[in-house]
Fold each of these.
Amino acid sequence: MTARTLTFRVFRHNPRDPDSEPGMRDYQLDETPGMTLFIALTRIREELDPSLSFDFVCRAGVCGSCAMLINGRPGLACRTLIRDQPARINLFPLPGFELIADLSVNTGKWMRGMSERLQAWVHTASETDVNVLEARMAPEEAEAIYELDRCIECGCCVAACGTMQMRPDFVGAVGMNKLARFRLDPRDDRTDAEYYQMIGQDNGIFGCMSLLGCQDVCPKELPLQTQIAYLRRAMARQGL
Ligand code: SF4
Ligand code: SF4
Ligand code: FES
């Protein structure tokens, strides 16, 4: 099979540079075996254009930094095999987040704001005693929490969400998944009435349209549909 010549059409803009106009720039590369989008972007930066901005840390689908719009669909550059893509690949930064430059967005700032708003930490009245053994947790409880804790905060679900595009204050599937995780945690003393105060509005669980774009694009295949449904039912009971 002859190697394809790939054309990458990439969004370029640096909002901090007064001379930078938003636009698209084309780059061409020959496809190599096993090429990922991360490898292609690295080659573009090393061989064709050192000014191209994009984020990565782990190159293994763990850190969540390299999410972008790949031919219109949110995904991780390091987990995207070029052989599954057409020869023309359009790349945009994830919508819904502050643009740093080109394909790089500030998901960290958004995630921190969401975590603070949802108080995404264990709330407990018990004092920690470092001299006693840790409290035990049933393995099935720990497993259920771990399943939701696999979120890497990549932002793909936020970028895919219709509600998010209309309501910038929406907590997103990532936020609802976070609260679902603390609701499962036996160490967290919060009641459903307290959770309702945080997400019982249209910018929380009742703003979700349940079209599940979030679940379709989540690279960790988190059970967002199930968690959103459980949470909505529990919160609807509080509103009665
Ligand atoms: S829920 Fe999935 S898509 Fe959303 S931030 Fe977490 S890992 Fe990414
Ligand atoms: S199901 Fe809800 S959170 Fe998920 S993409 Fe749709 S509106 Fe957004
Ligand atoms: S570089 Fe870490 S998820 Fe892609």
Amino acid sequence: MEKTPRAKLGSIHTLIHYHMKYFSYSEFFKSDTAEKYQVNNIPEDAQLSQVLGNIKALVSNVLDPLRDMIARPIIITSGYRSQRVNELVGGSKTSQHLSGKAADIHIQGYTPQQMKTVYRTIQMYYDFDQLIFYPSKNIIHVSWNGNKNRQESWVKA
Ligand SMILES: [Zn+2]
């Protein structure tokens, strides 16, 4: 995303409710942990345009095409994480959630078996940086890092 002066972006409220094709940025900033502990989960001004650009790249390259293919709602169970939220959920210090490059997703109504099929489909047909299937949580972690995509995937028990 182009660096845009804050005034041109409008209020943060308008911004986080901006809709891409299927997703809104607010879905990536929403965090049960942030709500529970009453901590901020919106990027600082200095990082904001970078984070929004990263989210948009993940959505347009992976999540929108996946949504089109599956034709079912994709729930973002964890998108962007502020430093504090990442600490509270026990995320890695270098987690790509910190920059908006990663999201954890669940396909509405899907069993772990069906989620595994989605995992395999992404693995075979999509470009990504890291792809992790968590059968016990019934979620898939997927990240996008542009021309640095590593195409790494594994299942985590
Ligand atoms: Zn994740």
